[in-house]
Amino acid sequence: MEEIHVTSCPLNCWDVCGLKVTVRDGKVAKVDGDETHPITQGKICARGRMLKERANSSERLLYPLKKVNGQFVRISWEQALDEVADKLREIKDRYGTTAVLHSHDYANNGLLKNLDKRFFNCYGGVTELTGSLCWGAGIEAQTWDFGNSYSHAPEDIQNSRHVVIWGRNVARTNMHLFQHLLAAKKRGTKIIVIDPLFQQTAQIADMYVSVKPGMDAFLAMGIMKEMLRLGLEDRVFIARHTVGFSDVEAMLENITMEKMEQLTEVDRSVMTELAMIYGNRPTATYLGLGMQRYANGGNTIRWIDALVAISGNVGIPGGGANFGNLQVGQCFDIAALALPKRKTASRTFTMMKQAEGILQAANPEIKMIIVTCGNPLTQVPNTNLVKKAFQSVDTVVVFEQFMTDTAALADYVLPVTTVFEEEDVYYSSMYHAYVNYGPKLVKPPGEAKSDLWIWAELAKRLGFAADFAYTREEFLKMGLKPLQRHGITLERLKKEKHLLLPVQPVPWSDYRFQTPSGKYEFTSALAQRKGMNGKLQIMYPAESEIANPLLAKKYPYRLLTIHPLRSNHSQHYHLVESIQSLKIEVSKDVAEDKGLAEGDKARVFNDRGELIGTVKILAKAHPKTINIDEGQWAKFGGSVNVLTSDRESDNRYGSTLYDCLVNIEKAEND
Ligand SMILES: Nc1nc2c(c(=O)[nH]1)N[C@H]1C(S)=C(S)[C@@H](COP(=O)(O)OP(=O)(O)OC[C@H]3O[C@@H](n4cnc5c(=O)[nH]c(N)nc54)[C@H](O)[C@@H]3O)O[C@H]1N2
Ligand SMILES: Nc1nc2c(c(=O)[nH]1)N[C@H]1C(S)=C(S)[C@@H](COP(=O)(O)OP(=O)(O)OC[C@H]3O[C@@H](n4cnc5c(=O)[nH]c(N)nc54)[C@H](O)[C@@H]3O)O[C@H]1N2
Ligand code: SF4
Ligand SMILES: [Mo]
Fold first, then answer.
1. Counting ligands in written order, which one lies closest to the CA of residue 654?
2. In this structure, which residue's CA is closest to atom 30 in ligand 2?
3. Which letter, b or e, does each residue of 538-548 get, where b requires 16 or more Cβ atoms within 10 Å of its Cβ?
4. What is the per-residue pLDDT across 504-521, written as a single tens digit (0 to 9) for each?
5. Per residue in 370-413, pLDDT tens?
6. Among protein residues, the one whose CA lies closest to atom 47 of ligand 1
7. How far is the CA of 325 from the centre of ligand 4 (A)?
8. Which atom from ligand 1 is nearest to the alpha carbon of 174?
9. In the 8-state DSSP scheme, what is residue 381?
10. From the CB of residue 42, how many other CB atoms can be counted at a distance below 10 Å?
11. How many CB atoms lie within 10 A of CB 444?
12. How far is CA 280 from CA 160, 342, 507, in A?
């Protein structure tokens, strides 16, 4: 029997595609795009198609596992749940609930994945992770500037005269924006790409700017200085809707164009041209996550926001400083699902510094880690420290679909369902504002269970069964409740498969900003309330010639660790043979300096660790730049995070994954 169903891609991605899944004899036989989805229109990427392989793989975890004398042995669910619950009870009695750490990330965009928080809050409140490896620095920066991080609707790009793609690898990571760019280009819209690596998106650009990694704030400043010199700024917007502009002017007066050319390695003429582009409204800016993963990352995003603001591109069709689109997630009642008021104790570590947090925790020490929707051993910076920290804890419990590097370290591994094996609704606060319905299409293999089932079973054993005595449908309705008055219900969603959420297609068009002053804040009151300098600043990456010349002498090359093409983070490597090795991409000058040829084995190293891989020479990349894609498994060459730093960004909410100096040398071919 064959049936075709419409559902959603659950992967952590800009696009949240509508999928069309063929089910044959109770198994997923094919994953295609849903042509009726207004944004994604039937086009999906290989990662989405591979959800079939993820579901059907012979490597799926099928039974609960317990480590005994260093080896995993199969145990029953009854035993697994009883033992984990007993430990949770004992920890609560002896040390307090914050002796448990919940380590997680955003592996699945399902609404019901928020029920993990409900479990931990009802348990009493555990040590939670704050900030984000992904976009934390930029979200906080936009919150200081606008009061929130909102993007324009995808179709609004039709109103843009120019589109600036700033540090976003669109063709690889955001394929439907790439489709829009191709269409915009046909209409005559000018496309500008600012990126130290010349990627596929740059190939279609009318103008490509290669910037020195981590120095984008100086580029934005150079453009602004030229804009003010040429009188291209929007004085009406600045006067009516902003505060702190005189601080910006003062800052720009004190820095010369020559200095900015030198810092960015971008010619002044390019800055002048960009000033004219920004002045010739509307210009849309699509910021990626690239330039905010530095120690100065929040400040960088703030300078780019400031450029968008002074050029009058805020709140107008075709404009925008498009970074996150938090208005999407804000449509749902997450608190009704998570019950934050139920916790009576709390402690936080930042996502970046979870390893240090674990190793240094006192009163109470961390006695147990529960990992869900995340693979910290490959994805969190400073892998060697993460490994040490996780190994130091008595009990590590991992809910997983596969035996990842993190699962391999665990004491208990609990097998969970994949997307087509459970019902949920999916959305992402990164790009478009459609919510997609995802029905349960097939039975899970072996004894795999949903995360929700596990939480409910543990809750029963810990005395708060009532908090989980709801059906999936009831939980979904809880989360969707605020949407009812907009006519968005679970029933309609089931019928129509995707619905547009009530968000603003052109944010800030009413100029009512969510900042303390109600205006766009060049100088942030919120930052000042948090005890930080609210002014825009001159800041450098932490691992740079300027900030740390000694380190730069020892490790003269900048390492980027961008997202892989064929895998969503670590989720596909084990399923695609051709990517099961470590590729080291180097700019031409690095290859020349070090006598490296294409295909050579090389060793990349710094004080935190080392990796060995195969050299690929990049035809066009900023000098002194190396890239190793993130997400690789230990058995296929190792995660690049053995090299990255766990330092937090300037505003403390983001990572500094791309702020990393290394050296490279030829390794012996084996
Ligand atoms: N194929 C694929 N797609 C994905 C994902 C995936 O793993 N694989 N992951 C999804 C997720 S979770 C996310 S967060 C998004 C991320 O989407 P992107 O923001 O596109 O992510 P990155 O891979 O970090 O690429 C950022 C770009 O910034 C550039 N860059 C690095 N440093 C700098 C700098 O200092 N200045 C400037 N101007 N540019 C810089 C890099 O060269 C790269 O081209 O992608 C999503 N889509
Ligand atoms: N060096 C470097 N490091 C990075 C990045 C980078 O660009 N460079 N990118 C960062 C970014 S943007 C992000 S978002 C993070 C992502 O970090 P993670 O979210 O930790 O990365 P994933 O590889 O997606 O791992 C998620 C794990 O969750 C499992 N999983 C999937 N669905 C479910 C589910 O429904 N339930 C449970 N229990 N498990 C599930 C998968 O099998 C997978 O092993 O990585 C960050 N790390
Ligand atoms: S990974 Fe992203 S682009 Fe690919 S199918 Fe899923 S949502 Fe679409
Ligand atoms: Mo991310």
1. 2
2. 373
3. ebbbbbbeebb
4. 999 999 999 999 999 999
5. 999 999 999 999 999 999 999 999 999 999 999 999 999 999 99
6. 173
7. 13
8. 47
9. S
10. 14
11. 21
12. 10, 52, 20
Tell me how far the alpha carbon of residue 563 lies from the centroid of ligand 1, in angstroms: 6
Q: Which residues lie closer than 8 Å to 398 by C-beta, 6 or more apart?
A: 370, 371, 404, 406, 407, 409, 410, 412, 413, 414
Q: Is 598 helix (H, G, I), strand (E, B) or coil?
A: coil
Please name the residue that has the structure tokens 């449509």.
331
Q: What pairing do the DSSP bridges indicate for beta strands 601-606 and 609-618?
A: antiparallel
Can you tell me the distance from the alpha carbon of 222 to that of 230, in angstroms, rounded to the nearest whole number?
12
3-state SS class at 15: coil
Question: Residue holding tokens 């543990």?
Answer: 458
Of 662, 514, 563, 658, the C-alpha closest to 215 is 658
Which tokens hold the place of 433?
A: 């504002």
Predicted model pTM: 0.98
Give the pLDDT confidence of 263-304 residue by residue, as tens digits.
999 999 999 999 999 999 999 999 999 999 999 999 999 999
Q: Which residues are near ligand 4, the ion (C-beta closer than 5 Å)?
A: 134
DSSP state of 484: G
> What's the CA dihedral at 624, 628, 634, 635 to 10 degrees?
-110
DSSP codes, 334-365? HHHHH-GGG-S--EEEESTTHHHHHHH--SSP
β-bridge partners, 242:
520
What are all long-range contacts of 496-500, with beta carbons under 8 Å and residues at least 24 apart? 497/6, 497/7, 497/18, 497/34, 497/36, 497/37, 497/436, 497/437, 498/8, 498/18, 498/34, 498/36, 498/37, 498/38, 498/434, 498/435, 498/436, 498/437, 499/434, 499/435, 500/38, 500/433, 500/434
The H or E element that residue 605 is part of is strand 601-606
Question: DSSP per residue over 269-309, as a string?
Answer: HHHHHHHHHHHSS-EEEEE-SGGGSSTTHHHHHHHHHHHHH
Residue 670 pLDDT level (bands cut at 50, 70, 90):
low
Q: What is the pLDDT of residues 588-612, one digit of tens each?
A: 999 999 999 999 999 999 999 999 9
In angstroms, the CA 543 to CA 641 distance is 15
Question: What is the DSSP pairing of strand 583-587 with strand 625-627?
Answer: antiparallel
**Structure tokens belonging to residue 18:** 């509508």
Ligand nearest to the CA of 210: 1
The helix (run of H) or strand (run of E) holding residue 474 is helix 472-480
- DSSP letter string over 63-128? S-EEEETTEEEE--HHHHHHHHHHHHHHHHHHT-GGGEEEEE--S--BGGGGHHHHHHHHHT--EE
Rounded to whole angstroms, the Cα distance separating 33 from 45 reads 9
Contacts 24+ apart (CB under 8 A), 551-556: 551/661, 552/661, 554/661, 554/663, 555/606, 555/661, 555/662, 555/663, 556/624, 556/661, 556/663
In whole angstroms, what is the distance from residue 64 CA to residue 73 CA?
8
Show Cβ contacts of residue 452 under 8 Å, excluding neighbours closer than 6 positions.
Answer: 112, 115, 422, 468, 472, 475
Nearest ligand to residue 631 Cα: 2
* Statement: residue 669 has pLDDT above 80: no
Tokens (6 digits) for 226: 């030229």
Which atom of ligand 3 lies at the shortest distance from residue 15's CA?
7
* CB-ligand 3 contact for 21 (6 Å cutoff): no
- Contact indicator for 428, 108 with CB cutoff of 8 Å: no
Q: Which two tokens stand for residue 124?
A: 């009493």
Residue ranges and CATH numbers for the domains of the chain are 2-56 (3.30.200.210), 65-131+343-423+438-500 (3.40.50.740), 152-322+508-529 (3.40.228.10), 549-666 (2.40.40.20)
